[in-house]
UniProtKB/TrEMBL annotation, chain A:
This is Extracellular solute-binding protein. It holds the Pfam family SBP_bac_1. Residues 1-24 form the signal peptide. It comes from Streptomyces phyllanthi. InterPro entries: Bact_solute-bd_prot1 (IPR050490), SBP (IPR006059). Keywords: Cell membrane, Lipoprotein, Membrane, Palmitate, Signal.
From TrEMBL, chain B:
Keywords: Cell membrane, Membrane, Transmembrane, Transmembrane helix, Transport. GO terms for cellular component: plasma membrane. This is Carbohydrate ABC transporter permease. The keyword Iron-sulfur does not apply. Pfam families: BPD_transp_1. GO terms for biological process: transmembrane transport. It comes from the Bacteria.
Length: 439, 301
C-alpha cells in the first residue's frame, strides 16, 4: 500500500500520545443507543474517492423511503485513520459508519469500537466468497463489517520485454526464481522485480498464499504464527533472491520505482487486482504493454492466491442507530446499483462476487486494453483467495516488518532472522497490551 | 518554513562578497563562511525549486522526465486542482487562512496582554506563573492534541472551527516572547509617567505600551501564523468533516486515498506550491514592521 513516511510518523505520534492519555479517558458511556431503524442521520468516515456520489444514490432512493440519511466525511486512509477512530471512540464521538481495512478489524473489535451486526446484516453473507466473509467475522458468530472491496494478488509482467528477453511467464515460484536469474544473465541492468520492505501488506499476502496463519486463537489466548514454516519458506525465498542479486532490493512506491517501471528497468510486479490504477500513474508510458497472470504457485498442483488490500464497512459501537447503519452498509456493498457506482466512482474492485462480473467489469481497465478478459480472469483468481487470519496488533507486526526486513534487504542479510524479530515484537506487544498469548 | 530561511540566507550570500569591496581587503574574501552560506542557500532553495518545477509537470512527466526540467502541465494541474471535488481546495485554503489568521490574531492579543502584565506588574505568584509558562514552552503541542480533543469532545466542540481555534489561543511561547519584549521595550518610567498624568492602567497599556511592543508582537503573530498554517496533528484529531479541513489535512487526504487509488501527486504538489504563496506574501508585507524603532524618543538614558 502506498504508505508514506509522514503518515507513519503521524500514526506513531498519535499512538504514543494516545497511549499516554488512555487513563484520562474513562467515563462517557451513552449506552442507551437502542438499536432501532427509522428517522436517522448517519455519518460515515471513508477514504474511497467519489463515495459522496454513491451515498447520494442512497439518500435519494432507499434512504429516503426509510428516512435514513447518510453524510460522507472523507478521510485519509491507513493506520492513522484507525487511530483516529479509536481516539474518537474514547471520547464517545465516533461516526456511525467507518471504512476499515480487513487487517484493522481485530484492532477495532478488541477496542470495542465496532459493533456486532449479525442480527441486522440479513442475507449479505451469501453475496461474498467464504474466504472474504470470514475476515469480517474473525471466525466467530458475530459479524463486524460488510466486505466492500478486495485485493486478490496477481502477477503482472511486461509482455513485450518478456518476449524480447526470451522469458516465459512463471507458474511456480521456482520458475519465478529461474526467470529472475535468466533475465540477469540476459540483461544484467534489468531486474525482474524488487523486494519491497516498505510494503508489509504484500509480504502478508504472499505468506497467506503459502498457507501461513499469523494470528489464531487458542481458547482465550492468541497464538502468533508469523515465524511459522510457511512464512519462513516465503522469507527465505525472497531473501535468497535478494542475496544473490537476482532481484532488486529497493522499496516500491518511490519515484525511483516509478521510473524503473516506466523505463522497463523492472519488468514484472507481484501485485493485486488494483495494479492497473497504480501503473497508470507510475508508468504512464507503458500503457498496453502489460499483462496479468495468476500468481506463481508453491507447487504445480496448487491454485491459491493471497490478498493485498481490501476494506469493509463497519458500524461503530458509538452509533445511536446501529440497525439503520447496518442496513446502509449492506445496501452499499451488495446492491447492484450501489456496487456498480462504487466501481465507477471509487475505482474499487468489489468483494461481492456477482458484482465482479457485472456491467462495470465487462471491459478491461484502459491501461490493459490489450487483455480483453482481464476481469473474467481476475474474478476466477479472486475465488482462489486463501483465508487470512488477522490479529489485534497487525500494525505492530507491520512496523516491525518494515524495520527488520528493511535492514535485512538493504544489507542482503538473513531474512529468517528478520522474521524472528517480527514474531518476537508482535508477541511482546500482545503481552504488553494484556492479551493472553499461547506458546 | 523554508521561505523564512530563504529570505534570510539570500541577502547574506550577497553580502559576503560585498563586504570585501574595500581594496585593502580584496584578497580577504572569507571563503569558508561564503561557501557555507552558499551551501545553506542551495540546501534551502533546492526543495523549493523542486516544488516549483514539479508543479509544472503533467502526471505522465512527473516521474519520467529529468527532475529539473520544467514540464508542460502547469495550467492543466491548476485547473485539475480547481476542479477537484468542485474546488474544495479553495475551501481548505480559506479554512487555513481562518485558522491561521484569526488564531494568530487572538493568540497575539492574549500574549500581548499577559506578557505585558507579567513584565510590568509585581504580584505574588508572578514567577510561578512564568515558570509554568516556561514549562509550557518546552511541551511540544503534539502531546497536547489528544487530551485537548478529549476535553473539547466532552463539551461537544469537536469537529467545529472552535476546536482548532481554541487550543491555539494560548501560546506559552508567545506569552514568553511578549514578556521578554515588554520588559525590554516598555520602560517602567514611561508607565509611571502615564500614571502621574492620570491615565488608567488599560489606557496606559493600549495607548502607551502597545505601540512600543508592536515589533515584538509582529514576531509573535508571524510565528503563530506559520505554526498554525503548518499545523497537522491538532486539526487531524479534531476534525472529521473535510469541509472544515485546513490545507495540510486536505492535501494529506489526496495522498492517502487507499490502496486501489493512486495518490494524486500532481494535485498535491501544485496545491503545496499554492499553499506557500500566502506565507511568502505575508512575510514580505509584514517584514517592514520588524525594523521600526519605536523606542526612540520615549526615554533618554
Amino acid at each position: 500500500m502506498p504508505n508514506t513516511k509522514h503518515s507513519r510518523f503521524v500514526a506513531t505520534a498519535v499512538a504514543v500520545t494516545l497511549g499516554a492519555t488512555t487513563l484520562a479517558a474513562c467515563g462517557s458511556s451513552d449506552e442507551d443507543g437502542e438499536a432501532q431503524s427509522g428517522p436517522a442521520k448517519l455519518t460515515y468516515w471513508t477514504w474511497t474517492p467519489g463515495m459522496d456520489k454513491v451515498v447520494d444514490l442512497w439518500n435519494k432512493g432507499p434512504g429516503k423511503e426509510q428516512q435514513i440519511t447518510v453524510t460522507v466525511k472523507k478521510q485519509a486512509s491507513g493506520d492513522t485513520l484507525v487511530t483516529k477512530i479509536l481516539t474518537a471512540h474514547k471520547a464517545g464521538k465516533g461516526p456511525d459508519l467507518v471504512q476499515a481495512e480487513y487487517q484493522a478489524l481485530p484492532t477495532l473489535v478488541s477496542n470495542d469500537a465496532v459493533a456486532d451486526i449479525a442480527g441486522e446484516s440479513g442475507d449479505a453473507k451469501s453475496k461474498f466468497a467464504d474466504g472474504v466473509w470470514q475476515q469480517t467475522t474473525l471466525g466467530t458468530d458475530a459479524v463486524y463489517a460488510i466486505p466492500q472491496d478486495i485485493g486478490p494478488m496477481m502477477f503482472y509482467y511486461r509482455e513485450d520485454l518478456f518476449k524480447k528477453y526470451g522469458l516465459t511467464v512463471p507458474t511456480t515460484w521456482d520458475e519465478f526464481a529461474e526467470t529472475a536469474r535468466a533475465l540477469k544473465k540476459e540483461a544484467p541492468d534489468i531486474d525482474l522485480t524488487t523486494f519491497s520492505a516498505n510494503d508489509s501488506g504484500l509480504f502478508a499476502g504472499l505468506a497467506q498464499q503459502a498457507g501461513a496463519r499469523w494470528w489464531t486463537t487458542e481458547g482465550e489466548k492468541w497464538k502468533v504464527g508469523i515465524d511459522d514454516a510457511a512464512t519462513q519458506k516465503v522469507a527465505d525465498f525472497w531473501g535468497g533472491l535478494v542475496e544473490e542479486g537476482a532481484i532488486d532490493n529497493q522499496p516500491m512506491y518511490t519515484p525511483a520505482w516509478n521510473k524503473a517501471l516506466n523505463t522497463g528497468k523492472q519488468i514484472a510486479w507481484v501485485s493485486a487486482v488494483w495494479a492497473p490504477g497504480t501503473l497508470t500513474t507510475a508508468a504512464p508510458d507503458t500503457q498496453g504493454k502489460w499483462r496479468m497472470a495468476p500468481l506463481p504457485q508453491w507447487s504445480k498442483s496448487d491454485n491459491v492466491t493471497g490478498s493485498w488490500g481490501g476494506s469493509s464497512t463497519a458500524v461503530t459501537t458509538d452509533s445511536k442507530h446501529k440497525a439503520a447503519a447496518a442496513k446502509f452498509a449492506a445496501w452499499l456493498n451488495t446492491d447492484e446499483e450501489a456496487v456498480a457506482a462504487l466501481a465507477k466512482e471509487g475505482g474499487i474492485y468489489p468483494a461481492s462476487t456477482s458484482a465482479q462480473l457485472g456491467g462495470a467489469f465487462s471491459e478491461p481497465p484502459a491501461f490493459f486494453s490489450n487483455q480483453a478478459d482481464f476481469y473474467t480472469e481476475a474474478a476466477s483468481i479472486a475465488k482462489t483467495t486463501a483465508p487470512s487470519a488477522w490479529g489485534p496488533n497487525v500494525n505492530v507486526a507491520y512496523t516491525s516488518f518494515k524495520d527488520a526486513f528493511g535492514k535485512a534487504a538493504k544489507d542482503k542479510s538473513d531474512f529468517g532472522a528478520a522474521l524472528k524479530t517480527m514474531q518476537d515484537a508482535t508477541v511482546a506487544d500482545l503481552e504488553k497490551q494484556g492479551f493472553g498469548v499461547a506458546e | 518554513m523554508s521561505s523564512l530561511a530563504v529570505d534570510k540566507v539570500d541577502p547574506a550570500v550577497g553580502a559576503a562578497p560585498g563586504a570585501a569591496q574595500g581594496p585593502p581587503l580584496r584578497r580577504r574574501v572569507a571563503l569558508v563562511p561564503t561557501l557555507t552560506l552558499l551551501l545553506g542557500a542551495v540546501y534551502c532553495l533546492l526543495p523549493v525549486a523542486w516544488v516549483v518545477i514539479a508543479a509544472t509537470k503533467s502526471g505522465s512527466e512527473l516521474f519520467s522526465t529529468f527532475t529539473f526540467l520544467p514540464g508542460t502541465g502547469f495550467t492543466e494541474n491548476l485547473s485539475d486542482l480547481n476542479a477537484y471535488r468542485e474546488g474544495i481546495y479553495w475551501q481548505w485554503m480559506g479554512n487555513s487562512a481562518l485558522y491561521a489568521g484569526l488564531g494568530a490574531l487572538l493568540s497575539t492579543a492574549v500574549s500581548a496582554i499577559s506578557g505585558y502584565a507579567l513584565a510590568i506588574y509585581r504580584f505574588r505568584g508572578r514567577e510561578t506563573v512564568f515558570n509554568v509558562l516556561m514549562a509550557g514552552v518546552l511541551m511540544p503541542p503534539v502531546i497536547l492534541a489528544i487530551p485537548q480533543y478529549l476535553l473539547l469532545a466532552k463539551v461537544d466542540l469537536a469537529d467545529t472551527y472552535w476546536s482548532v481555534l481554541l487550543p491555539l489561543i494560548l501560546s506559552p511561547y508567545g506569552v514568553y516572547l511578549s514578556r521578554i519584549y515588554a520588559a525590554a521595550a516598555v520602560p517602567g518610567d514611561v508607565v509611571e509617567a502615564g500614571r502621574m498624568d492620570g491615565a488608567g492602567e488599560w489606557r496606559i497599556f493600549t495607548r502607551v505600551a502597545l505601540p512600543m511592543m508592536v515589533p515584538g508582537l509582529v514576531t509573535v503573530f508571524l510565528f503563530q501564523f506559520v505554526a498554525v498554517w503548518n499545523n497537522f496533528l491538532l486539526p487531524y484529531i479534531m476534525l472529521s468533516d473535510d469541509e472544515k479541513f485546513p490545507i495540510t489535512l486536505g492535501l494529506f487526504t489526496l495522498l492517502e486515498q487507499g490502496a486501489n487509488t493512486p495518490a494524486l501527486y500532481t494535485l498535491v504538489i501544485t496545491g503545496a506550491l499554492l499553499a506557500v504563496i500566502p506565507l511568502i506574501a505575508l512575510f514580505l508585507v509584514i517584514q517592514r514592521f520588524w525594523s521600526l524603532d519605536l523606542l526612540s524618543g520615549a526615554v533618554k538614558s
